Amino acid sequence: MAEFIDADLSGSRFVRSDLSGVVMRAVEIQGADIDAPWLFDGDSFLRINGVDVIPLVEAELNRRFPGRAERRATDPDGLRTAWAALERTWAATLSRVEAMPPGTTDISVDGEWSFAETLRHLVMATDTWLRRAIQEVDQPYHPLGVPNAEYETDGHDMTVWATGQPSFAEVLEVRAGRVAMVRDFLATVTAGELTATRRNPWAPDYPETVLSCLHTILQEEWEHLRYAVRDLDRIR
Fold it and tell me: Which residues contact 55 (CB under 8 A, 6 or more apart)?
């Protein structure tokens, strides 16, 4: 409930900050860069000069990333189609990276994860939501995976991620294995299995379904693909 009047916040950087419900009036926001991965969840809105821009942003991202619109599929065939589209988009991005100068995969832009670190995080995300949540594997994590924040290691053995700096070839190998795991799971999943109840990996008292876990995997994949492409555009 803070109030800023005639305040100069130009050049400020907010990371993992809650700005929901913020009201701005008579402000200068030219050049502002907002990245809100949960912008499309629920009944949220973001108005600029009285216009809700969320539908505009959603449509533009779907145009830029063909197949992204399928990430909320609710039946087995739709989920398989959604994952196949995602795989094609990642394959094209990997081909782009291969054509860039050596060392590109380890470059960090504005303190964000490098391309290699992004793939390592997606390994961890797959282990969390497929292996741990859906398949209920006791020891689901590959040591190469990278967690996002402290809450993603809370109550778990931190040494599982203490692997140093693997080569990009090693990252690609493990990442390809996790992509195949999701593909193989979706190949046989049934509509009935999608409704089965699972525990949220980070909040065990909060119920999930197999479908909601899969939606989280798809959300993680598309958001981190967007981040990766954004930063590759800066590197080139």
Answer: none
CA distances for 44 relative to 39, 41, 75, 210, 232, angstroms? 7, 7, 25, 24, 29
Q: Pull the structure tokens for residue 125.
A: 């995300």
Specify the pLDDT at position 161.
55
The string of DSSP letters for 97-135 reads: HHTSPTTGGG--STTPPPHHHHHHHHHHHHIIIIIIIIS
Tens of pLDDT along 69-96? Answer: 999 999 999 999 999 999 999 999 999 9
What are all long-range contacts of 34-39, with beta carbons under 8 Å and residues at least 24 apart? 37/219, 37/223
Between the CA of residue 136 and those of 128, 129, 132, 147, what are the distances in Å? Answer: 9, 9, 5, 19
Give the pairing type, strands 207-209 and 47-48: unpaired
Q: Could you state, in order of their start, the residue ranges of all structural domains in the chain? A: 72-235
Q: Which DSSP letter does residue 52 get?
A: E
> Which tokens belong to 131?
């292996």
User: Residue ranges of the alpha helices (H) in the chain?
Assistant: 54-64, 76-98, 115-126, 168-188, 191-194, 210-235
Summarize pLDDT for 114-133 with one digit per residue, the tens: 999 999 999 999 999 999 99
Q: Say which DSSP state 138 is in.
A: S
**Rounded alpha-carbon distances, angstroms, from residue 21 to 9, 24, 45, 48:** 18, 10, 10, 13
Domain at 72-235: CATH architecture:
Up-down Bundle (1.20)
Side-chain half-sphere exposure of 71, counting CA atoms within 13 A: 22
The candidate with the shortest Cα–Cα distance to 55, out of 68, 66, 39, 67, is: 39
Tokens coding 54: 């969320």
